[in-house]
Write a structure and sequence with these properties.
The complex is a heterodimer of chains A (577) and B (237). With 577 residues, chain A is of the alpha/beta class. Chain A has 22 helices and 17 strands. In chain A, the strands form 5 sheets. A 6-stranded mixed beta sheet of chain A has the order 2-1-3-4-5-6. In chain A, helix 7 packs antiparallel against helix 8, helix 11 runs parallel beside helix 12 and helix 16 packs parallel to helix 17. In chain A, 47% of the residues are buried. Chain B is α+β, with helices and mostly antiparallel strands and 237 residues long. Chain B folds into 2 domains: 98 residues, Pseudouridine synthase I, catalytic domain, N-terminal subdomain (Alpha-Beta Plaits, 2-Layer Sandwich); 131 residues, 2-Layer Sandwich (Alpha-Beta Plaits). In chain B, 19% of the residues lie in helices and 36% in strands. Chain B contains 5 helices and 11 strands. In chain B, the strands form 2 sheets. In chain B, strands 1, 2, 3, 4, 5, 8, 9, 10 and 11 form a 9-stranded mixed beta sheet that branches. Chain B is globular. Classes of the chains: A alpha/beta (577), B alpha+beta (237).
Chain lengths: 577, 237
């Protein structure tokens, strides 16, 4: 039995509960289902178990009487090695069935830094990486998630990719598969017929069919699929609860999707449009169930910009008593500290206060359309300092389009002003803990800055060092994003189908878990790019407007004309507020 | 206070102690057991566990004490529906005080089953008749800022109270708690000694004991011939 074989190797690996199964809230395996789906997450258990999307799909598929959906996460490198040594293929968490025995294997790809883990998991599953090399008897490989919104770099590895929100289309996909399976007698026929038919569903990209169609007719595009009414979609109120503490150890209440702010660097903000709110009635209902069925001690509100929820005050007033009755701590966004929020925040534990001005100067904040002014920051801080907050964290980005030395100076100046402000308004004798987290701008598809240049590796280091020195002298704790990671992220996110061979090479060099600093290896990535004769710098350079973008096959719901206009507006520094 | 005896079998046996604590906390909340909270800046549930069980070891004799006014019947009924697969409440009884498991539970019995028959009897007898018995342990040491594994040899004879059995099945009586010997490590050591290190095995902790008389010293237990007379199963009190 595979379970016994697995139990034996679990004694040799770190955190074996990641692979043991038996979680509370797991759905009982259906042995007679006509559709067996293995839902894979391309990062480790603790990260995947914090992902709302995984819980939604797991719940939707298992609600179907004809479908059995099981989970599987990327085995940590120590487990991957032991599995290979002992000839154990990638297996499902619940019934310990090998991936190859499923009808379909799905990968939720959260970001570009998960790409190599897809290949790592395919290899562990004993499957060929490229779709064209796989047999008809192999499971159909489906992908989705934020990381695959530009599907081109990964297109050759998948049979189909869902562009957009999968919770409605996944049922159509399951219906179609079950229907075709009952009609067809051979696996080859099932796979061929299924791919042909599924290609006509909204939001489904079948590379083997659509790529050719698009090259013949560039207007033939794949339209992103979105859920229309958030009140009428499945919500995982009875989710699977992890056996190893997840990165987010709390109940999550998703209050809305989309964002109307339109910060020009932010991919998430544009691709998740249109803005759709969940009603406060529905949210209170969900919250009540979540509290009862999970037993979490904390609940957080999730969205791209929680303070933009209409009548947030009313929602919090409804949630608050429910939470305190059950000893649940409701964690609130700390970015909007007006009097109301302040009074509520005061009751719960005082954590640190977080702002994301992203740029130091007002000029650059206007360029990126970050609608936050110094007055906003200082008014918020004043309230907070008076209430006794003594820790502030600020997020910035370096290398934003049009950035100059003055913009960097402004970051340092902001630190100085906050310190003075603290001395003026704080009533405590404690010193201020000021932390700055500085990431590097990554030009992303589906943003007004999708054509922009990224700082060179050397310039990132130079800027980071300068700011580190100056801020440290002022007693600011500084954290930076790894420059190599930012370069590779840019290279992968703006790539086309030619990136596939780079990814294959990277995989053969043993690259995996790129999202983890202890595993990320820039030198190896450069080797992978060079080896395939592809220049990484080309992907991080300024793009011209005439050449079609590699991801032009996708219709994300916003035209490139809009993005071009927004880009122009950025550089004439006009902000619609 | 309610004292619960529970089993921790596969797959839950792979959960680490901290995760078991977190899991009980959430399970009690889901079961709506009215557990008392500590007073203070960060209130936490008043729940007390017996000493951590090694990850990967199965047990039918784990204990937890829950500070609540709910009856034992209610707790066992509600909590049974909210625990993960592998953790099961075996019994519940009321107690006046928190028994402080870590300091009272001193000895555990383990049942060992090998995948095939191997005669370990001569090795067991040799250990029992010796004054010392050294085992190798992996220890993480810091070496110029880096962590690395080092093998350390340690005399564990005083942690072994009794070893018996033959063929496939064996019985160990070992100290557990502050002075502790992992039964699975001992099996691996015995199998290596018998030149059969590749053989699979299953270990289950089946019983936990406390000292009848507090004056008896743990360190000297192995020198006492008639062991049962000084030990009492925790379930009997």
């Amino acid at each position: 039995m595979l379970t016994q074989k697995i139990n034996k190797i679990l004694k040799k690996v770190s955190k074996p509960a990641r692979y043991a199964g038996g979680e509370f809230g797991a759905v009982e395996t259906k042995t007679d289902a006509s559709f067996n789906f293995l839902l894979g997450f391309c990062d480790v258990y603790e990260v995947g178990m914090s992902n709302l999307g995984i819980k939604i799909l797991y719940g939707i598929l298992n609600e179907r009487s004809d479908t059995n959906c099981e989970l599987c996460f990327a085995p940590w490198p120590d487990m991957g090695e032991v599995m290979k040594e002992n000839d154990i293929e990638l297996f499902s968490l619940q019934s310990k069935t090998i991936a190859r025995d499923f009808d379909m294997l799905g990968f939720s790809v959260a970001s570009e830094l998960n790409f190599t883990n897809v290949l790592y998991m395919l290899e562990l599953a004993g499957l060929k990486l490229r779709a064209k090399d796989r047999k008809a008897t192999d499971p159909i490989i489906i992908g989705g998630g934020m990381g695959l919104l530009n599907p081109m770099p990964m297109a050759d590895f998948f049979d189909l990719i869902v562009i957009g929100e999968a919770e409605e289309v996944i049922n159509k996909i399951a219906d179609l598969y079950v229907e075709i399976k009952t009609q067809s007698d051979t696996k080859t026929k099932i796979k061929n017929d299924f791919l042909k038919e599924v290609a006509s569903l909204e939001g489904v990209f079948v590379p083997s069919i659509h790529s050719e169609e698009h090259s013949k007719n560039p207007n033939q595009k794949i339209k992103k699929t979105v859920v229309k009414d958030l009140d009428n979609v499945y919500y995982p109120t009875n989710p699977i609860l992890p056996s190893v503490e997840a990165v987010h150890n709390r109940a999550v209440l998703e209050i809305f999707r989309g964002c109307f702010r339109g910060c020009r660097f932010c991919q998430a903000g544009f691709v998740s449009r249109p803005v759709r709110f969940r009603s406060s009635e529905k949210l209170t209902e969900i919250a009540k169930e979540l509290i009862e069925k999970t037993g979490y001690e904390e609940m957080s509100l999730s969205s791209l910009s929680t303070s933009d929820y209409p009548n947030l005050q009313n929602l919090i007033e409804q949630l608050k008593p429910m939470c305190s009755d059950a000893n649940v701590n409701l964690s609130l966004p700390s970015t909007r500290l007006d009097a109301f929020m302040a009074s509520h925040a005061d009751e719960s534990r005082k954590s640190s206060l977080t702002f994301a001005p992203e740029a130091g100067s007002q000029r650059l904040r206007d360029v990126i359309k970050k609608g936050i002014t110094e007055d906003d920051i200082f008014n918020g801080l004043e309230n907070a300092f008076k209430m006794g907050y003594d820790a502030v964290k600020l997020y910035f980005m370096i290398g934003l389009p049009s950035e100059t030395q003055e913009d960097l100076d402004a970051i340092v100046e902001l630190a100085r002003k906050i310190k003075t402000h603290y001395k003026k308004h704080s009533k405590t004798k404690r010193s201020l803990s000021l932390r700055f987290a500085l990431s590097t701008f990554v030009p992303k598809p589906y943003t007004p800055f999708q054509w922009e240049v990224q700082l060179s590796y050397e310039d990132i280091i130079k800027t980071q060092n300068e700011l580190k020195d100056r801020l440290k002298k002022m007693g600011v704790k500084v954290a930076f994003h790894d420059p190599g990671t930012s370069k590779v992220e840019a290279g992968l996110s703006r790539g086309g189908s030619e990136i596939a061979k780079v990814l294959e090479k990277a995989h053969s060099l043993g690259i995996k878990f790129d999202g983890w600093t202890e595993f990320f290896n820039y030198e190896k990535w450069v080797e992978a790019f060079n080896n395939e004769g592809i220049n990484l710098d080309k992907y991080t350079a300024q793009k011209d407007f005439e050449t079609p973008l590699p991801w032009s096959i996708i219709n994300i719901g916003i035209s490139d004309e809009f993005f071009k206009d927004e880009r122009e507006r950025a550089f004439i520094e006009v902000v619609k507020l | 206070m309610i004292i619960l005896k529970f089993e921790k079998l596969n797959p839950a046996s792979f959960m680490a102690h901290l995760d078991v604590m977190r899991c009980f906390n959430m399970a009690l909340r889901r079961a709506k057991v009215k557990v008392k909270y500590s007073t203070g800046f960060n209130p936490h549930m008043l729940v007390f566990f017996s000493s951590p069980l090694a990850v990967g070891l199965e047990s039918r004799a784990e204990y937890v004490c829950v500070d609540t006014n709910d009856s034992a019947e209610v707790v066992i009924k509600n909590l049974s529906k909210t625990l993960p697969n592998g953790i099961k409440i075996l019994s519940a009884k009321a107690a006046v005080n928190n028994p402080n498991f870590a300091s009272v539970l001193a000895v555990a019995r383990y049942e060992v089953e090998l995948d095939k028959e191997i005669d370990l009897k001569p090795i067991l007898d040799k250990i029992l008749s010796s004054k010392t018995f050294n085992m190798d342990f992996e220890k993480m040491v810091k070496d110029r800022g880096r962590e690395r594994k080092e093998i350390v040899s340690k005399d564990v004879r005083d942690r072994i109270l009794d070893l018996s059995g033959d063929g496939k099945k064996y019985n160990f009586l070992l100290l557990c708690g502050n002075l502790n010997l992992r039964a699975d490590k001992l099996v691996e050591c015995l199998l290596t000694e018998a030149n059969n290190s590749q053989v699979g095995y299953k270990v289950i902790k089946t019983e936990a004991f406390m000292l009848k008389n507090k004056k008896d010293k743990l360190e000297d237990l192995w020198l006492i011939n008639k062991l049962p007379s000084v030990l009492i199963s925790f379930d009997e009190i």
